[in-house]
Specification:
- The protein is an alpha/beta fold.
- Among the domains are: about 90 residues, Arginyl tRNA synthetase N-terminal domain (Gyrase A, domain 2); about 180 residues, 3-Layer(aba) Sandwich (Rossmann fold), CATH 3.40.50; about 90 residues, no CATH class.
- The protein is built from 23 helices and 16 strands.
- It has a 7-stranded mixed beta sheet with strand order 10-11-6-5-4-12-13, with helices on both faces.
- β2 and β3 form a beta hairpin.
- α1 crosses α3.
- The structure holds one RNA strand.
Length: about 625
RNA sequence: GGGCCCGUAGCCCAGCACGGAUAGGGCGUCAGCCUCCGAAGCUGAAGUGCGAAAGCUCAGAGACCGUGGGUUCGAAUCCCACCGGGCCCGCCA
């Protein structure tokens, strides 16, 4: 997009100007000035050069600026250069040319997305144990991961969205114990989603029973062994239950706008024997050791020379621990071992494309997964330690491969005291961590339903004569927008203390604000006579600061996305969207379009409205926030 | 005991990766704005100057950026220590 081109030109001008002034290898750097009265782009290079040469920063800026002004004449977008007495070099845009070019580029459908040329990338996210419904903590994972997938694709990468299904762990076993040994019905009540039933009623109840009746725990390990065996009545039965729960979970994921390319089943990973080969290599290189004495007697362990501690990878009964499942999975992702899987279609109903599933026997291999250049795992911060172990092992298997295996960690979602109390729990501090076992959580669907309820109310108020199905569609979009934006906009390193009442907010820095802003923009296009039209002459009429700011902001989407991709931080897009929406509303309040008498100016403004709203829609799409023409 | 993360107005957050020009938003509070394109929005908050007035002009609420040191011409940003909060360090996943 054009602002990046402008920035490139500015950097070139600075480099050349420094050279001309006798400073050959000056490091070029530019930044957005704190206030646009300084200019459109600034550089502190003279300050640095002054420091090195012992001159005054202001004088240095003047010296560099005099060279830069000449050079700037050859560029397309640099309109002016001025020195600042503090030592800054301030660059201004050739505004009419910049605006005209920006608008035509965007109007032609070029929203800054990179075409092809990217890397093969895997993004793993969601990864919810198939024994319960998604709560808002899982939703944070999904929103982060799915947005990352979208941003990476925008940046031209070829992305595989992976969802790991732990179908052979203790949590699934608990459900089966409930059905097989506590006599709980394996059909939930009518009208209750199956994942909700299993999580709310079965899982919670089984865990209560474990406390009262410790003998029941033995049933759990029996079930676990049966599942691991992979055949027999219990294993077959479990497969059916897991599939049913998973389908219910996927309905929620799809509702939130996430789509996946592949489901990786843990049971298949185990049966693929990928671990065996890796285990052998690790043994050969002496990285894993057998302990014949001490507290880990009979186990295979990975020693950590730094801490002096050791991590068990194979238990004394010969079964593998969780990291030993994550290691082959990671190795498969970055292509350190041959792909043992075939692939089959799991669902064609997924909005956003066919969903595949790993398959050991009978799977076709016309599609390929794994073996990527960059693997990103969206996993909460509590697993950082284990992820570091996985990375270390990858480096042992192939030096440097951990650089291609990135853990995007994020903090958990907790519940505010108010919300926890409303759910019937007594809380000590200001917030409470969610707990599936205790039944202390807010389901993603529950939250979406609450949001939707409120959105129906608000939408009806504004559109009393529209049909119910239309209202419902809009309200659903508003609900998803509100939840996704809320979970995305905050820094992943910060714990979210979720409060039900606060989250029902539709004003201010929220998803619905973006939807509203977009709808306002489309309204102008509907209501105004004339057509969006821009050319160098009419662009010269767009001189109001609100117009210039809006045009500048909209041409920075690609820059935001690049930052988001580089730091695996989609919240960049949230910030950008909000700023763009604020710029638009500022323009909306002060600059008339419909009522503008000058037809050229009106059409130019129309084209600005059209272009900026397209960019807004694109940035919303990158966050998975739905867009509607009218709300 | 070892490690990771957080600490910015009454509340919630941005800015920190790459040190730089007046530390940005949002909620809440108070006061305004729908016979100008959608009020899910926007404007204003002691006041100053001009004017009969509409209005214009300049200014503008709330923050010792957890504390104390250090590096630097310059620190919210980098380094160290401390304080407060959360998390991890299992033959659970």
């Amino acid at each position: 997009m054009k602002f990046l081109e402008f920035q490139g030109e500015v950097e070139e001008v600075i480099a050349q100007a420094c050279k001309a002034a006798g400073y050959k290898d000056a490091a070029v750097e530019v930044s957005l000035p704190p206030n646009d009265s300084y200019g459109d782009l600034s550089s502190a290079v003279p300050i640095r050069l002054a420091k090195e040469s012992g001159k005054k920063p202001g004088d240095m800026a003047v010296a560099i600026a005099s060279k830069a002004m000449e050079l700037a004449k050859k560029s397309r977008y640099v309109g002016g250069v001025s020195p600042h007495r503090g030592g800054y070099l301030n660059f201004t845009l050739n505004r009419s040319r910049f605006i005209a070019d920006s608008i035509s580029e965007i109007s032609s459908g070029d929203l800054g997305a990179t075409k092809g040329k990217g890397k093969l990338v895997a993004v793993e996210h969601t990864n919810v144990n198939p024994n319960k419904a998604l709560h808002i903590g899982h939703a944070r994972n999904l929103v982060l991961g799915d947005s990352l997938v979208r941003v990476m694709r925008y940046l031209g990468h070829q992305v595989q969205a992976l969802n790991y299904v732990d179908d052979s762990g203790a949590q699934v076993a608990d459900i089966i114990v409930g059905f097989k040994f506590l006599g709980l019905p394996d059909e939930g009540p009518a009208g209750v989603k199956y994942d909700v039933y299993c999580g709310d009623s079965v899982y919670a109840k089984v865990n209560q029973e474990y406390v009262k009746n410790p003998a029941l725990k033995e049933k759990q390990s029996y079930v676990l062994k049966e599942i691991e065996k992979g055949s027999g009545e219990i294993a077959e039965y479990t497969r059916g239950i897991v599939r049913k729960i998973l389908e219910a979970q996927l309905a929620t994921c799809w509702r939130m706008g996430a789509a996946y390319d592949l489901l990786n089943w843990e049971s298949q990973l185990v049966h693929s024997k990928m671990w065996d080969g890796i285990f052998e290599s690790l043994k050969k290189m002496g990285y894993v050791r057998y302990q014949d004495s001490g507290e880990n007697k009979g186990c295979w362990v990975i020693p950590d020379p730094e801490s002096g501690e050791e991590k068990v990878v194979v238990r004394s009964d010969g079964t593998v621990v969780y990291v030993a499942k994550d290691i082959p999975y990671a190795a498969w992702k970055v292509g350190l071992i041959p792909d043992p899987f075939g692939y089959e279609v799991f669902s064609r109903d997924q909005p956003g494309g066919v969903l595949y599933s790993t398959a050991l026997a009978g799977g076709k291999s016309h599609v390929h997964f794994g073996g990527v250049e960059l693997a990103v795992s969206v996993i909460d911060t509590r697993q950082s330690y284990l992820q570091r172990i996985v990375a270390k092992v990858l480096d042992r298997l192939h030096e440097g491969s951990s650089r291609r295996y990135l853990h995007r960690s994020y903090e958990v979602v907790a519940l505010s005291k108010k919300t926890a109390t409303a759910l019937g729990f007594q809380i000590e501090g200001e917030f409470a961590h969610m707990s599936g076992r205790k039944g202390l959580y807010v389901n993603a669907d529950t939250m979406l339903d609450r949001l939707k309820e409120k959105a129906v109310e608000e939408t009806k108020k504004r559109n009393p004569s529209d049909p119910d199905h239309w209202v419902a569609d809009v309200a659903e979009a508003v609900a998803v927008a509100a939840l996704r934006y809320e979970l995305l906009k905050q820094d992943p390193d910060k714990m979210i203390v979720f409060d039900m009442e606060d989250a029902l907010q539709f004003q201010g820095d929220t998803g619905p604000y973006l939807l509203y802003t977009y709808a306002r923009a489309r309204r102008i296009l509907d209501k105004t006579e004339g057509k969006p039209r821009i050319d160098p002459e009419t662009a010269a009429k767009l001189t109001r600061p609100e117009e210039v700011r809006l045009a500048k902001k909209m041409s920075m989407l690609d820059m935001s996305a690049m930052t988001a991709g580089e730091f695996l931080s989609p919240k960049e897009i949230a910030r950008f969207s909000h700023e763009l929406a604020v710029s638009f509303n500022d323009f909306y309040e002060r600059v008339p379009v419909n009522k503008e008498a000058d037809a050229d100016l009106r059409d130019a403004r129309l084209s600005l409205v059209d272009a900026s709203s397209r960019v807004l829609a694109e940035s919303m799409r990158l966050m998975g926030v739905p867009v509607r023409d009218r709300i």
